[in-house]
């Protein structure tokens, strides 16, 4: 079986994770990663990136903006619902 | 405390389109926190309130065009994402340095140029960095992503829509979403690594 490079593995990583690579390529990628500590480390950081960004960018809507948003929309609709 | 309406999003949208303002209030209350968070991620905290207002107003004005076979949430995300895009384009922003420099590097044989420890450090960025510093850096990093990558990454990885839903919101093929999200992840991964002390 022909090995794939780290670079090829990185190029195909998202497709691999979403089940979009053919079975033979999937096998080659898994075989490469199993013997490549660099790719194993790279994948760990790749997988952690969305979680870290997600947790770091959670924004809570200020209560005063909740009130002003409803008031703004009601005024623009021209209705007096309260 | 007002009584919450348990109707589906689609039923509320149908009622709101027929002039039921309480139904539109319920839609607003149901989605406002998610839409505010989405807007913060797409345009930053300072501009998010404007985008939220513009987005909900646009939803209200376009209720008649909502097709009941579509998911209301996806339709709402599409309108707000477009509002964010228009808002960004209307604002004069100072040029920002591209995140391309944080893409992974390979030698001539296609092997990673860094050690496993260096390659993995981005995964520990939240342990190594002060929470407030990381929050500010993360917001700045999203701002530095190329436009196409930002919206795909925010919707897919931060708002956790499926790839198919993001494709629907952005009006592109799922393969295009995967390509954009992947590119964003690579840049942001390198950026986190650099923040934690290692070049990509």
Labels describing this entry:
heterodimer; A: 82 residues; mainly alpha; Arc Repressor Mutant, subunit A; 5 helices; 71% helix; B: 200 residues; Rna Polymerase Sigma Factor, Chain: A; 2 domains; 65% helix
Shape of chain B: elongated
Beta strand % of chain B: under 5%
Structural class of chain B: mainly alpha
Query: How many domain regions of chain B?
Result: 2
Helix fraction of chain B by DSSP (H/I, runs of at least 4): 55-70%
Assigned CATH class of the largest domain in chain B: Mainly Alpha
Low-confidence stretches of chain A: none
**Overall geometric form of chain A:** elongated
Q: CATH homologous superfamily of the largest domain in chain B, by name?
A: Winged helix-like DNA-binding domain superfamily/Winged helix DNA-binding domain
Explain what you see.
- The complex is a heterodimer of chains A (82) and B (200).
- Chain A has 82 residues and is mostly helical.
- In chain A, 71% of the residues lie in helices and 0% in strands.
- Chain A has one domain (6-77): Arc Repressor Mutant, subunit A.
- Chain A has helices at residues 6-11, 13-17, 23-34, 37-56, 63-77.
- The model of chain A has no long low-confidence stretch (mean pLDDT 92).
- Chain B has two domains: 9-90, RNA polymerase sigma factor, region 2, helix turn helix motif (Rna Polymerase Sigma Factor, Chain: A, Orthogonal Bundle), CATH 1.10.1740.10; 99-195, Orthogonal Bundle (Arc Repressor Mutant, subunit A), CATH 1.10.10.
- The model of chain B has no long low-confidence stretch (mean pLDDT 92).
- The chains are: A mainly alpha (82), B mainly alpha (200).
What is this entry, summarized?
The complex is a heterodimer of chains A (82) and B (200). Chain A is mainly alpha-helical and 82 residues long.
Layout of helices and strands:
The complex is a heterodimer of chains A (82) and B (200).
Chain A: H1 6-11, H2 13-17, H3 23-34, H4 37-56, H5 63-77
Chain B: H1 9-17, H2 21-43, H3 48-61, H4 72-90, H5 116-120, H6 125-128, H7 131-144, H8 147-158, H9 163-170, H10 174-195
Helix pairs in contact in B: 1-2, 2-3, 2-4, 3-4, 4-9, 7-10, 8-9, 8-10, 9-10
């Amino acid at each position: 079986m022909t090995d794939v490079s780290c670079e090829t593995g990185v190029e195909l990583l998202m497709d691999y994770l979403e089940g979009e690579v053919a079975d033979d390529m999937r096998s080659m990628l898994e075989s490469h990663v199993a013997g490549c500590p660099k790719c194993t480390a790279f994948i760990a950081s790749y997988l952690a990136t969305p979680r870290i960004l997600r947790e770091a960018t959670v924004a809570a809507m200020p209560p005063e903006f909740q009130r002003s948003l409803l008031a703004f929309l009601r005024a623009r609709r021209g209705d007096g619902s309260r | 405390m007002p009584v919450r309406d348990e109707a589906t999003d689609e039923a509320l949208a149908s009622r709101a389109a027929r002039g039921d303002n309480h139904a539109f209030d319920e839609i607003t209350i149901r989605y406002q926190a998610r839409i505010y968070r989405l807007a913060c991620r797409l345009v930053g905290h300072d501009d998010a309130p404007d985008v939220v207002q513009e987005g909900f107003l646009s939803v209200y004005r376009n209720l008649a065009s909502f097709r009941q076979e579509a998911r209301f949430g996806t339709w709402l995300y599409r309108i707000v994402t477009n509002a964010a895009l228009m808002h960004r384009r209307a604002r004069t922003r100072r040029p920002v340095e591209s995140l391309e420099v944080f893409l992974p590097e390979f030698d001539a044989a296609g092997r990673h140029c860094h050690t496993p420890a260096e390659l993995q450090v981005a995964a520990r960025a939240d342990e190594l960095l002060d929470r407030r510093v990381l929050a500010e850096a993360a917001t700045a990093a999203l701002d530095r992503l190329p436009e196409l990558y930002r919206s795909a990454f925010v919707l897919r990885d931060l708002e956790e829509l499926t790839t198919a839903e993001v494709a629907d919101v952005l009006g592109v093929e799922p393969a295009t979403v995967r390509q954009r999200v992947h590119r964003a992840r690579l840049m942001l991964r390198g950026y986190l690594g650099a923040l934690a002390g290692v070049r990509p």
